[in-house]
Amino acid sequence: MKLRVGLFVLVLVLVGAPSASALESRFVVSSTAGRESLQGRCAAWGCTVSKAGGSSRRSEYLVGTPGSFDARIYLGALRAFPGVVRVELAMPGLFGTTNVIVRTSLGAGGLRLLCLLHPCSVLYGLDGILGQVYLVELLNVLDPVLSLNLFRLLPGILDAEIDQILSIPGLGAAAGEPPPELTEDLPYPYYGSIVPMGYALQPAASIVRLAEAQNRFAALGTGIIADIDTGVDPTHPALSSALLPGYDFTRNQSGGSELNDLPGPAMPVGPGNTQAVRVNQYSVAMVDQYSVAMVDGPPYAAFGHGTEVAGILHLVAPQAMLLPLKAFHSDGTGLLSDILRAIYYAAQNNARVVNMSFDLTSYSPELAAAIGSAESQGVIFAASAGNDGEQTTVYPAGLPSVMGVASTNDFDQRSSFSNYGNGIVWVAAPGEGIVTTYPFGTYAAVWGTSFSAPFVSGGASLLLSIQPGANQNVASLAISVAQPLSQSGMGNGRLDLFGALGSTLGHP
Q1: Is the CB of residue 111 less than 8 Å from the CB of residue 104?
Q2: How many angstroms separate the Cα of 167 from the Cα of each of 172, 201, 248, 359, 432?
Q3: Quick one: pLDDT at residue 71?
C-alpha cells in the first residue's frame, strides 16, 4: 500500500515542470461558519479569503492558494474545514474536475477520508444499499486520464472509470408516414382501461402473435417492469393504473414524471382539436397546437420517449406494474452514473424485468457489473440495438447477459435504421409505425429500436406469468424461439410471443 501511495506522490513530483505561478488556483467556498472561521483556518494553510457573495443561510468566499503543487491538496483540505458545504475551482489554471465512477472496498466513510488526503470529493453512492460504487469528483492533475490512472493506484480503490454521457437511440430513426391505425380512435376496452382500437389491435401486435399468447396461456404479465428512460406521463388514462411512482435521477427526487421537463403546465389534448404532427425526429403524435408549441426545439428532442416505451410495455403485459426510472433529460441525454443508479434501484425495489432503450458505444465495466449484480437476483434485461443502420457493437445490448433487440418492418425486413450483427442482436421485433401512448393523454406512431425492445421486455413479463421463477437464461432461451429472417445479423429471428411462451410449456 505504501508503494502505491508513493507512486502517486512520485508522479506528482515528476510532472512538476510547470512553474509554481502557473499552478496558482482560487476556489469558491460556500460556508455557514463565517469569514473569521475560514480566515483562521487559512492562516495555518497559507491561503487568503475574500467575500464573494452568498445567501442568508451561507456565504461564499473566494479563497486563494499559494503557487505550489500543494494546491492539489487544498480542494480536500478546504472541504474539511468546519462549516464548509461546497468547494469549487474558480480559476483552475491547469486544473479542472472530472466526475469518476469508483468501486472501492473502503465504504463511504473510508472513501471520504481518502479524499481528505487526495484531490477528490465523494458526491454520492450509486449502488444503493451495497455501498461499493460511488460518484467522485476528481481534481485533474494536468490531464483527466493521468489523474484517473493515479487515482486507481490509491489503497482501497478497486476500479474507476470516467462518467459518460449516453444518448437515446431513438434520435437516429426517422418517422415515416403515420399509419392509419393512429387515427382509429374507436374506444376499445383493454384490461381495465379504454384505449383507441388502433393501439390495441395494431399490426405489430398481430405480427408477434400477442393476443394468441395472452389468451392461450392466460399470460397478461406480472410483477414489476422497470423502464430506464425520460420518465412517463403519470396522468395518461391508459397507463395511470399500471404505474408505480418511480424515481427521477436527473433531479434526485421521487416520481418519474417527464412532465416536469416542460416549460409550462401540461394540458390533456381536447377531443376534436388534434391532428397528426411530427413532434420529433422519430414520432408523429395526435396533438393540438398548444402541445406542439411546448415541445418544439432541441431541448425536447426526446420528450415523450419514456411514455412511448411505457405504452408498448403496457400493450404487451397489461397486468404488469411499470416502474418509471427517469435517467434521461428531455433532449435525450443522460449520465452513465444515473443509469447505474437506476439499475441498482430497480433490482433493490423488486423489479423482475428492466427495459433499456438506450445505448453507448464504449464498454463500461461498471455497467456490466450493475447488470450482472441485478441478474444474479433474477432480473431479466432487454435493450435496443441502436439506430445507426450499421453492423456494430453498442452497449448494453452487446453484453452477453442482455437480450439486444433490432427492428423490423411489417414485412419482416430489417429496418434501414436498425443496427444488426449477432454480437448485439438476440432477436428482432417490429419497430416502424408502432402506435403507443404519448404525453398529454394522447397517442403517437413511433420508429426506432427503442420501441422494438419493449416488445421483448413485455414478453419476458408474460413469461413470468406462467413461469414465475424464470431468470435471464430461461427468458433468453424462450425468446430465442422466434421466426427466422432472411437477412443475416438478426439473431434468432423475429419475436414470436406465442412460440416463446409455448416452448416453455412444451407446446409446438
Answers
A1: yes
A2: 10, 31, 17, 6, 20
A3: 53
Going edge to edge, which strands form the sheet with 157-162?
120-125, 133-139, 97-104, 157-162
Range from 30-34, 281-285, 399-403, 451-455 carrying the lowest mean pLDDT: 30-34
Angle between helices 305-316 and 453-466 (to 10 degrees): 30
Determine how many CB atoms are found less than 10 A away from the CB of residue 349.
15
C-alpha cell at 337: 452514473
* pLDDT computed for residue 10 by the predictor: 43
Give CA–CA dist 167/388, Å, rounded.
12
CA atoms of 385 and 405, how far apart (whole Å) = 5
CA–CA separation, 263 and 379 (whole Å): 36
Give the whole-angstrom CA distance, residue 230 versus residue 458: 18
| β-bridge mates for residue 228, sequence order | 325, 356
Query: What does the pLDDT look like over 36-64, one tens digit per residue?
Result: 888 888 887 778 887 655 544 457 787 87
Per the CB < 8 A criterion, the answer to whether 324 and 246 are in contact is yes
Asked if residue 135 lies in contact with residue 112, where contact means CB atoms within 8 angstroms, the answer is no
Tell me which residue of 428, 412, 402 sits closest to 339, measured CA to CA. 402
| Model pLDDT, residue 119 | 79
Q: In what order do the strands lie in the sheet with 26-31?
A: 48-54, 59-64, 26-31, 84-91
| Site of grid cell 412460440 | 499
The residues that bridge with 494 in the sheet, in sequence order, are: 428, 483
Amino acid 147: pLDDT: 84
How far, in Å, CA of 43 to CA of 37, rounded?
Answer: 10
pLDDT digits (tens, 9 = 90+) for 218-271: 999 999 999 999 999 999 999 999 999 999 999 999 999 999 999 888 877 766
